[in-house]
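Here is the promised in-class demo. Please do not try to memorize the tokens; focus on the logic of going from shape to residues.
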């Protein structure tokens, strides 16, 4: 009796797989050689688009002059002169302070709010998946568009927020949120918390979903309270995910450009000028016979990279636990 069409397809599939395995063995390629062959294109791509620009930026920071030279534009080695100029620039230290405040105020709040959202979204309720999609809306908005929307909302003349606060009696007159230095920085920090808390929640939700349910069931049977289950099970097993979430949010926050650029342009004064915005202004807004601004911007970019690397290493040293998988 002839076999069914399904059996025939299975048999032909197995024979095809055996044939491929035979051809692979005939190539006499070890697993190590195969790994090298697969990783080489990726490493070459990273060298071209990531490592080379970093090295070139460091090299430019040690010179004065233009990137593309002409006979009338000197390109000279000046050593650490650009870094000395950078570290004596009050605007650089102001930008560093703004970036540190913006980063280390917003990221911890995002972590706490994001963890709360993730715990809520993990529970079973009606429209759960619709809620998971809805919280991603602020994060999905392009940063510059998000900044322009909030600049309009916070405008004292025609902004919705001032108008509502005046109508309900909280304010007696429209408030210039983005024209007062400290308030502008607080507003920018609040906006980034609103925008990226959902991203933090999404990462933490993935980590929560990987924790086995039977651990909670066993703890519940032993009489452990909700807080104790959270403290003794959720937090320890969530440490690798928290590490990833912190790195993924801290580094972009420390390198913020789009939000301050689109919201205030770094103002009022330099109240919201972050390090990356300072670097852009130093590199391209200071033309001169030797374009010292570009060399200064390269030095600032190098410092930003080193600080970001140090932050990531601190996170890894603090939170990485090889026993938690």
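The designed amino acids, position by position:
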């Amino acid at each position: 009796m002839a076999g069914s069409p399904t059996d025939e397809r299975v048999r032909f599939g197995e024979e095809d797989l055996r044939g491929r395995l035979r051809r692979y063995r005939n190539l006499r390629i070890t697993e190590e050689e195969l790994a090298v062959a697969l990783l080489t294109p990726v490493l070459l791509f990273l060298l071209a688009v990531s490592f080379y620009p970093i090295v070139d930026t460091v090299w430019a920071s040690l010179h004065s002059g233009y990137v593309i030279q002409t006979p009338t534009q000197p390109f000279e080695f000046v050593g650490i002169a650009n870094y000395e100029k950078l570290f004596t620039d009050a605007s650089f230290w102001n930008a560093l302070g703004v970036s540190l405040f913006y980063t280390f105020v917003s990221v911890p709040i995002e972590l706490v709010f994001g963890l709360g959202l993730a715990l809520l979204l993990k529970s079973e309720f009606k429209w759960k998946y619709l809620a998971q999609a809805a919280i991603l809306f602020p994060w999905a908005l392009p940063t510059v568009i998000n900044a322009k929307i909030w600049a309009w909302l916070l405008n004292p003349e025609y902004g919705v927020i001032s108008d509502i606060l005046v109508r309900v009696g909280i304010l007696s007159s429209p408030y210039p949120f983005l024209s007062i230095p400290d308030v502008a920085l607080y507003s920018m920090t609040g906006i980034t918390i609103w925008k990226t808390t959902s991203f933090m929640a999404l990462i933490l939700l993935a980590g929560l979903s990987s924790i086995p349910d039977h651990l909670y069931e066993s703890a519940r049977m032993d009489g452990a309270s909700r807080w104790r289950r959270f403290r003794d099970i959720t937090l320890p097993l969530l440490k690798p995910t928290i590490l990833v979430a912190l790195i993924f949010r801290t580094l972009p926050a420390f390198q913020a450009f789009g939000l301050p650029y689109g919201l205030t342009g770094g103002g009022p004064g330099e109240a919201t000028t972050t390090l990356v915005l300072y670097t852009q202004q130093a590199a391209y807004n200071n033309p001169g016979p030797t374009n010292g601004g570009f060399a200064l911007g390269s030095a600032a970019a190098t410092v930003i990279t080193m600080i970001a690397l140090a932050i990531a290493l601190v996170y890894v040293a603090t939170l990485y636990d090889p026993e938690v998988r």
